[in-house]
Amino acid sequence: MNKIDLNGKTILVTGCPGFIGANLVLRLLKEISAGTVVSLDNMNDYYDPALKEYRLSLVDKAAEMSQVKHVFVKGTLADKALIDKLFDEYKFDVVVNLAAQAGVRYSIDHPDVYIESNLIGFYNILEACRHSYDKVSDSYQGVQHLVYASSSSVYGGNKKVPFSTDDKVDNPVSLYAATKKSNELLAHSYSKLYNIPSTGLRFFTVYGPAGRPDMFYFSATNRLAKGENIKIFNYGNMKRDFTYIDDIVEGVYRVMQGAPEKKNGEDGLPVPPYAVYNIGGGQPENLLDYISVLQEELVRAGVLPDDYDFEAHRELVGMQPGDVPVTYADSEALERDYGFTPKIGIREGLRKFAEWYKDYYIS
Ligand SMILES: NC(=O)c1ccc[n+]([C@@H]2O[C@H](COP(=O)([O-])OP(=O)(O)OC[C@H]3O[C@@H](n4cnc5c(N)ncnc54)[C@H](O)[C@@H]3O)[C@@H](O)[C@H]2O)c1
């Protein structure tokens, strides 16, 4: 592992002010001393852009108090000239690519945007990392670590749990998953050919305050707050890893500081400095328990009334096609290499979400 001191570094975070990106940048602005963080996002309207503006306002506020300079650039990963210009101008030491078109269902009606953002966009980042080594000087080493978001969706319909990065993941069941698996393959080839230290992170259902409204806990809250019912698939008989945002940020922050080592194999050629890790709760929760805790916390925070009738608002229904009953992460490798396993439980995490929801939408 090649240790990287982030203090004083120039860091690109794409997908800020997306959910994970904004929280990562907040952490960087708080934690490191000196340096520059450049955030890049196209601020698309896949979900309410007001949430992105809100997160950006938090980042702006944090930047005022930070020793780190923060620059926000509105633009798309798919714009190769823009990406090259940013890499030329800022000479990034560390790159964290979180920008992507997320969502499994959306990819059915909007495939183009997945190809554009997740494949062409990621390719532009890889090319820019590759060419960063053309600019090496006494004061610049080129990109020392590329960290990028993959997804637990690459495990597709795998039956063996917990999901391990040693498992075969050649059977994606959505275009989204296929683009994420492709990112890992593209990163491997670029790591091998150009010796770019890269680490892919397979995130497992990330939730928390100001999260993504397209995700179940958030859309269910919107429905419950309006007095509507929620559907619980497979009669709630599903187990999932839910990972609280602070745990994800901690994981990404640690990984940024430890890049796979560059070394040569017996053939004298570089062994790709390449790694992929799971970041997931590691403690699969029963969906029905997760929803019960969510409802209790929504009552506690004052989003739902005290006499709220849980049973009356949930419809237990059968399995959705394509859904899998149990998914959770084997996080041993992350613990072994970075000394970290997510630890925030659903009670604490959902409490913070419910309190935020009350403040943001109701009071
Ligand atoms: N949240 C989860 O549970 C989860 C799970 C697995 C993987 N991921 C991955 O983690 C990353 C971050 O996810 P998130 O939950 O923060 O999602 P998000 O949608 O909140 O953030 C992604 C951001 O990328 C931006 N973006 C999209 N296409 C872009 C483009 N072409 N150019 C520039 N910006 C673009 C969006 O505007 C958005 O702000 C994504 O790559 C996602 O696929 C997330």
Structure commentary:
By secondary structure, the chain is of the alpha/beta class. A 7-stranded parallel sheet has the order 4-3-2-5-6-7-15, with helices on both faces. A 3-stranded mixed sheet has the order 16-10-18. A two-stranded antiparallel sheet has the order 1-12. The mean pLDDT is 95. Strand 3 (36-41), helix 2 and strand 4 form a beta-alpha-beta unit. It has helices at residues 19-31, 49-65, 80-90, 106-109, 111-132, 175-194, 216-225, 245-256, 287-301, 332-338, 346-362; strands at 2-3, 10-14, 36-41, 69-74, 94-97, 145-151, 198-203, 206-207, 230-232, 239-240, 243-244, 258-259, 263-264, 270-271, 274-279, 285-286, 314-316, 326-327. The structure holds nicotinamide-adenine-dinucleotide (NAD). Nicotinamide-adenine-dinucleotide binds at residues 14-15, 18-21, 40-44, 52, 76-78, 98-102, 117, 121, 149, 151, 203, 205-206, 212.
Main features:
binds nicotinamide-adenine-dinucleotide, seven-stranded parallel β-sheet, 18% strand, alpha/beta, 363 residues
Overall pLDDT score:
95
Shape: globular
Proportion of strand residues = 15-25%
The overall strand count is 18
Question: H/E element string?
Answer: EEHEHEHEHHEHEEHEEEHEEEEEHEEHH
What is the share of helical residues? 40-55%
Unreliable parts:
none
Structural class: alpha/beta
Ligand kinds: nicotinamide-adenine-dinucleotide
Write a brief structural summary:
The chain is of the alpha/beta class and 363 residues long. The protein contains eleven helices and 18 strands.
